[in-house]
Amino acid sequence: MNRQAQAVILLLVGGAVLRASLTDQYLNYVKPGLQPYLILSGAILVLAGLFSLWYELRPARLAVAESAAGASGGSAGVPEGAAGVSAHDGHGHEHEQDDDGHGHGSGGPKVAWLLLLPVFGLLLVAPPALGSYAAGRSGAALVAKSDFAPLPAGDPVKLTMLDYASRAVFDRGTSLGDRRVELTGFAMRGPGGTWLLARMMVSCCAADARPVKVALAGQLPDGLREEQWLRLTGTYTDRQLKDTVNGETIPFIEVSGSTVIQAPAEQYES
């Protein structure tokens, strides 16, 4: 791989990062707060690629190099064109210089072409956000707390999946009372065929994602399928079950109403 090809790869990688970070696509891989850093990284890669390509292709560079080589060859008595072709090792043996004819050394390793794979993945395939397949193979995530703030005003109260699950498990529903809450997540099958509402929670990116799971009881929509996104309302119930993956407690919610919705742009909780 020569330097021109390396510059083009820099441009492609930077362009793919910029394209993802300037649209909602980046939300499938990282939390929203990292968008400025993605934009900055992509811009730096694009500028580095453009500068490298300009430096390699500028027409004046070859003319200056040939003029300097001619002047040096004339003063030293070396035949023109001999420089950069061969060199003696002091024992009568000649070694060819590793040169591409333009004063450049050998190119980078061929494995560098593998950098194109994530580029094609972002530009052509665009892997979706993690869903029920990943959630079914990961244990439920909860955050233990000793005290919970009172619920805000509103009916129903909009809560994150993690907030509801933590209050239901560690607070035994005391802070929830009989208030109606609203949760949003995707449907998936749980232990014993129970329907769960789940949502992936990330600390940084999809690599550290873990699912928050809430079991569903009460009025469920007809024809419910895995991966369907739901916005539901319901109340706390003390029913619980155990996650078969890691043994974590999964609380229930008594569903009083639900709506099938499109997957939101920001599918992860953080």
CATH fold annotation of the largest domain: OB fold (Dihydrolipoamide Acetyltransferase, E2P)
Distance between the termini: 41 Å
Q: Tell me the radius of gyration.
A: 30 Å
CATH first level of the largest domain:
Mainly Beta
Number of strands: 8
- The spatial strand order of the largest sheet comes to 4-5-6-8-7
Q: Which sheet architecture does the biggest sheet show?
A: 5 strands, mixed, barrel
Strand content is 15-25%
What is the domain tally? Answer: 2
Question: What characteristic shape results from the CA principal axes?
Answer: elongated
Low-confidence stretches: 75-106
Per CATH, the architecture of the largest domain is Beta Barrel
Mean pLDDT: 82
Order of helices and strands: HHHEEHHEHEEEEE
Helix fraction, binned, reads 25-40%
Can you tell me about this structure?
The chain is of the alpha+beta class and 270 residues long. The protein folds into two domains: 127 residues, no CATH class; 128 residues, OB fold (Dihydrolipoamide Acetyltransferase, E2P) (Beta Barrel), CATH 2.40.50. Helix content is 31%, strand content 22%. The chain contains six helices and eight strands; from the N terminus they run αααββααβαβββββ. A five-stranded mixed beta barrel has the order 4-5-6-8-7. β7 and β8 form a beta hairpin. α1 runs antiparallel to α2 and α1 runs parallel beside α4. About 12% of the residues have low confidence. It comes from Dactylosporangium maewongense.
Report a brief summary of the structure.
The protein has helices at residues 3-21, 35-57, 59-76, 116-125, 132-136, 161-170; strands at residues 86-88, 94-96, 157-158, 181-189, 195-201, 210-218, 229-242, 249-261. It is an alpha+beta fold. A hairpin with a 5-residue loop joins strand 1 (86-88) and strand 2.
